[in-house]
Design brief:
The complex is a heterodimer of chains A (270) and B (315). Chain A is an all-alpha fold. Chain A has 11 helices and no strands. Chain A is globular, with a radius of gyration of 22 Å. With 315 residues, chain B is an all-alpha fold. Classes of the chains: A mainly alpha (270), B mainly alpha (315). At the A-B interface, α1, α3, α4, α5 and α6 of A face α2, α3, α5, α6 and α7 of B.
Chain lengths: 270, 315
């Protein structure tokens, strides 16, 4: 690291600033379109501004039903991923055992391979074993690729948690469960919270695997996909898009403050 | 554990206590118990599903009845080599390679400034600039680009305002990659792919750059290296595993995506779309399965090379 007085060369700063604009401008544009009066096209600049689409979107039952399903799936999948991811992280960071590398690979694989493979693999397994599509088939897929997010966050924290703390607790007479409850859990708590939130966001947003595991059910991303392919009411889609961006903003900020002191980068494992 | 030395007898223990002692004496048992649920889950749900899929790819579709014939055959794989199918594979791999290279070029300055110069307020801005697009809804991002690239959209407007509409027209007139408007051209597909996967390239690159020890850079300049030489001989080689790690994501994600080319781009298929069409409307599960094996094999080779380049330590 250089000292604070140093400044980046002009060209480098321009390239970085241009990159930031490229990254952020599309999200800003979503906010403008939510207020447009134009119904039939994506014309820029918007001919007029209105708030009426917010009321229209609010009153649509298909949107609220899709939102509810997405929230339920994300909650259950996150809970499962938290348990499985923490267990794997604890085991992997605790000891060096035979097959450790394989376990890490196994956890990363659902994310490293394209989502469509996970999706079609699950779909063909469901049809081979005649499992009907349900709430649980969606959860099954989501939990599988959420494990890695929790695992990544937890494993980084376990590495920084000193083993002598656990030994001290045992020496002072605590049994394994008390040690877990009073020593380990407070140490990894914020990492689990950050990992859990990221897993929730990942599941809430997932569309590729879900198209294969949902059957006739509609999560919010599936609703959005339907609108993208066969637009029915463009301004309503604009409003929903704006809300989804706004809703991601808060967890990102929270995760930033929670992991700020740490050396891990929250979300780097997505 | 000193009960023997002192002659002191420990009080009768609870079940939890006895279990705790057992785990203390046999740590392997605890590890095995901890690993059992995740391994069962991933082993059955994930690997099990993958194997079911793999099995399907060795079956074939009876062309007359439209039913899957459950007999071992390599005919379905041979079908992949048909020009129409092979084009799809080639198109996808070229797109994935171009997207990866472009992401690496755009990501590096951002990661470099974020890792080595940004402090305080700027650090937070860079963090948000990378994390917001990363975690914002995938479909909303694609939708934003549909708005931007539309013929009546902001890019056309911007080109007109700057009086360079002729440039846009010239780009769209390029045969092969151009089209009626940006939203129905390969350029459009490419722009959206790069946008969507860019954060996955920035994060590992930035992490690798942050790990470059400051004393190595000092040493290089003390030994007379100019900033350019330090960059080329010290910083870049150390950051390279990070870039390779990022390229795993950009490459793999582009290979498997079927939604972006469906919404922004031409009507020609990419691997993901081919899989989706084959298993959906065409009902040809074996061919769909064979198509999915292509990215698996490509990623297998890619990951092996990446591992040798040290990318896994940079993840």
């Amino acid at each position: 690291m250089r000292s604070d007085g140093d400044r980046a060369p002009l060209l480098l700063r321009l390239a970085a600033a241009g990159g930031l604009v490229y990254l952020l401008a599309p999200l800003a544009i979503i906010f403008v379109y939510a207020f447009t009066t134009e119904e039939k096209s994506f014309v820029w600049p918007p001919p007029g501004l209105t708030l009426k689409w917010f009321a229209v979107a609010w009153a649509r039952p298909d949107i609220s039903a899709a939102l509810l399903l997405s929230l339920q799936v994300a909650a259950v999948a996150t809970a499962l991923a938290l348990v499985l991811g923490t267990l794997t992280a604890a085991a992997v960071s605790r000891t060096r055992f035979f097959g450790r590398e394989t376990i890490s690979l196994l956890v990363i694989l659902p994310i490293a391979l394209p989502g469509i493979i996970t999706g079609i693999a699950l779909r063909s397994a469901f049809s081979t074993f005649s499992i009907p599509f349900s709430f649980w088939t969606i959860v099954l897929g989501h939990a599988t690729f959420c494990i890695v997010v929790v695992y990544n966050n937890a494993v980084a924290r376990f590495r920084r948690t000193s083993a002598s703390l656990v030994e001290a607790s045992m020496d002072l007479g605590a049994d394994g469960f008390q040690t877990f409850r009073h020593v380990i859990l407070p140490n990894i708590g914020t990492a689990l919270l950050a990992g859990g939130m990221l897993a929730f966001a990942l599941s809430f947003d997932e569309v590729i695997v879900t198209t294969f595991t949902a059957g006739q059910q509609q999560t919010l991303p599936l609703w959005m996909l339907e609108e993208l392919i066969r637009p029915r009411q463009r301004p309503v889609t604009n409003v929903v898009a704006m809300f989804v961006v706004a809703a991601t903003f808060l967890p990102i900020l929270a995760a930033f403050y929670l992991t700020r002191g740490g050396d891990e980068i929250a979300g780097s494992g997505k | 554990m000193s009960a023997l030395d002192t002659g002191w007898t420990p009080p009768p223990q609870s079940l939890a206590g006895r279990l705790g002692d057992l785990f203390w004496r046999r740590p392997g048992l605890l590890v095995a118990l901890m690993l059992l649920p995740p391994v069962l889950w991933l082993g059955i749900v994930y690997i099990g599903s993958l194997l079911t899929l793999l099995l399907q790819s060795f079956y074939s579709l009876d062309e007359f009845s439209g039913l899957v014939v459950p007999e071992f055959t390599l005919a379905t794989y041979a079908e992949l080599l048909r020009p129409s199918n092979f084009d799809i594979i080639l198109r996808t791999v070229i797109m994935a390679a171009l997207v990866t290279v472009a992401s690496a070029i755009i990501a590096f300055p951002i990661a470099y400034v974020a890792a080595r110069y940004a402090r305080g307020k700027w650090k937070a801005l860079f963090y948000l600039g990378i994390m917001l697009p990363l975690w914002s809804s995938y479909l909303v991002k694609v939708y934003a680009w549909k708005l931007i690239l539309a013929k009546e959209g902001i890019l056309t407007w911007l080109f007109a305002k700057l009086h360079i509409s002729w440039l846009l027209d010239a780009i769209l007139a390029i045969p092969g990659i151009g089209g009626n408007s940006l939203s129905v051209s390969y350029i459009g597909t490419f722009l959206v792919f790069v946008y969507i996967w860019l954060p996955y390239m920035i994060l590992p690159t930035q992490a690798a750059l942050e790990r470059v020890p400051a004393n190595l850079i000092d040493a290089s300049s003390d030994l007379g290296g100019t900033p350019a030489m330090t960059f080329r001989n010290v910083i870049l080689p150390l950051a390279f595993p990070g870039i390779v790690a990022g390229s795993i994501f950009t490459f793999s994600l582009t290979l498997g995506d079927y939604i972006i080319p469906q919404i922004v781009g031409t009507s020609r298929l990419f691997i993901g779309q081919a899989v989706y069409t084959q298993q959906g409307t065409a009902g040809n599960i074996p061919l769909a399965a064979a198509f999915t094996v292509v990215p698996i094999v490509i990623m297998g080779i890619y990951l092996t090379v990446a591992k040798r380049l040290g990318a896994f330590d940079a993840l």
